Amino acid sequence: MKALHFGAGNIGRGFIGKTLLESGFNVVFSDIDQSLIDFINKDQGYFVRIIGKNKDKTVRIENVSAIHANNPKIIEMITSVNLITTAVGPFALDKIALIITHGIILKIKIKSTQPLNIIACENKIKASSFLRKAVLEQLPSKYYDYLNQYVGFVDCSIDTIIPIIHDNKNFSSLIVEDFKEWIVNMNQFKGIIPKIIDMQLSNNLNAFIERKLFTLNTGHAIAAYLGLIKKYKTIKDAMLDKKISHIVRCAMIESGEVLVKRYNFNKKDHLSYIDNILIRFENPFISDTLERIGRNPLQKLGKNERLIKPLLGSIEYGLPYTNLAKGIAAAFHYKNKNDFESMKISSLIKKQGIKNSLVEICNLSIDSKELYSIFLEYTSILKTIM
With CB atoms counted within 10 Å of each terminal CB, which end of the chain scores lower, N or C? Predict the structure, then answer.
C-alpha cells in the first residue's frame, strides 16, 4: 500500500505519517518547504519523542521520502497511490484540490480503476467533504461518475497535541503526546478499507466530531483568549491560573451537557474525558503557545465552530452557558497586530460597537438574551479574571 501525505509539519510527520508507516504503508510526504523536502530525502527518517503521563519513549521513523507540492511529477504519483492524507491547514485545501483534480484526470486517462481514498486531517469540520466539493468545482462534469465510483473522500475527527519546536529548521526530531485519536466515517471509503493502526471506524462520526470540537477545541480556545488577556505565553501557563482553569472547565462542562442531550453520551464518562483533556493541557512537554491556539479568531467564532456552536446548543436545549459566554467575550478582546482577523474584529468593534459586532460575526440576534449575556461578560471580563 502506498500513501501520499500533503503537509510534512508536526501533525504530518508526528502523527499521520508515523501512523501510516507503522501500518505498513510506503509514505511519501509533500510540502512547499524545499529545505524540509531536502532533509527528508537526505535523512530518510526522523526521531519522534512520545511523552505521556507515565511514558517517555523515543522512536526512529525510517524509509520516508518527499516531493515538493509544485513538482509536476506529483500528478503522476497520485495515479499510483491508494491513500492521500492531508495536514496542511484548512486554508490550503483549495490548492491541494487543484493538484488532486489533475491527478484524478490522469487516472481516468490511463484507465486506472484502483480506488483512491482521501482523508483530510484538518482542524475543520468535515474537511474531506469540503475538499471533495473543491475538487468537483474544478473537475469537468463528465468525470463525476468516475469520481463517485473510485474516489472516496473520508471525513474524520483527529485529536492529538504536537507542540511547535522553537527551532523550526531542526527537522530531525519531534515531541508528541502519547494520546492520539483518529476516527473516520467508514461509509465514505471506496473499495477495501485500509487497515491502519489506531484508526477507529464509525457509523456516527458527527458525534465524535462534536465531542472533540465542543471539548478539546472549545477548552483550548477559551484558555487561549483568557490567557492572552493576562499576557500568558503558553497553554500550561494559562491553566495554572486557577480563575482561568475554573472558567475553562466549567465551559467544557456546559458544552458537554449539550453533547449528553444530543448524542446520549454517558455523563460520567464525558466528565472523565474532560478531566483527561485538562491534564493534557497542563503537560509541560506538549505545552502550545496561546498565540498559535488563538490565531484566526473570526474562524473560531463561526456559527459551526468551537465557541458559537456549543452556545447555540445550550440555547436549543435550555442549558446554562455563562462560561461559554465568557470565552466568546474573551475572543472579542483578543488583539494581535500580527493576526489580521483579530485586528479586523478590533476595528469592527471600534467602528460599530460590541453588540453590532456580535450580530455581524456570530449571527446572533441583537435583542437576544445570549447576545446580552456576552455583552455583559465583555464589559466585565477584566474584573472576572484579574
Answer: C
Are the CB atoms for 184 and 158 separated by under 8 Å? no
- Grid coordinates of 205: 462520526
**How far apart (Å, rounded) are the C-alpha atoms in residues 181 and 77?**
28
pTM reported for the whole predicted model? 0.86
**CA 294/CA 224 separation, integer angstroms:** 6
Q: Do 2-203 and 206-385 come out as alike in CATH topology? A: no
Distance, CA of 52 to CA of 217 (rounded, Å): 20
* Set of cell numbers at residue 50: 512520545
What is the model's pLDDT at position 52?
Answer: 81
Q: Which CATH architecture has domain 2-203?
A: 3-Layer(aba) Sandwich (3.40)
| Distance, CA of 284 to CA of 364 (rounded, Å) | 38
Domain limits of the chain?
A: 2-203, 206-385
Nearest-5° Cα angle at 35, 85 to 177? 50
Residues 9 and 39 sit within 8 Å (Cβ to Cβ): no
β-bridge pairing 55-62 and 45-52? antiparallel
Q: Reduce the DSSP state of residue 98 to 3 states and report it.
A: helix
Q: What is the pLDDT of residues 235-275, one digit of tens each?
A: 999 999 999 999 999 999 999 999 999 999 999 999 999 99
Length of the chain in residues, anyone?
386
The residue type of 234 is T
Q: Give burial (CB, 10 Å; 0-12/13-18/19+) of 386.
A: exposed
Which pLDDT belongs to residue 110? 97
Cα 277 to Cα 282: distance, rounded to the nearest angstrom: 9
User: CA 225, CA 234: separation in Å to the nearest integer?
Assistant: 11
Report the pLDDT value the prediction gives residue 287, as an integer from 0 to 100. 78
Cell numbers 449539550 correspond to 258
pLDDT number for residue 162: 84
* Mean pLDDT score, 71-90: 97
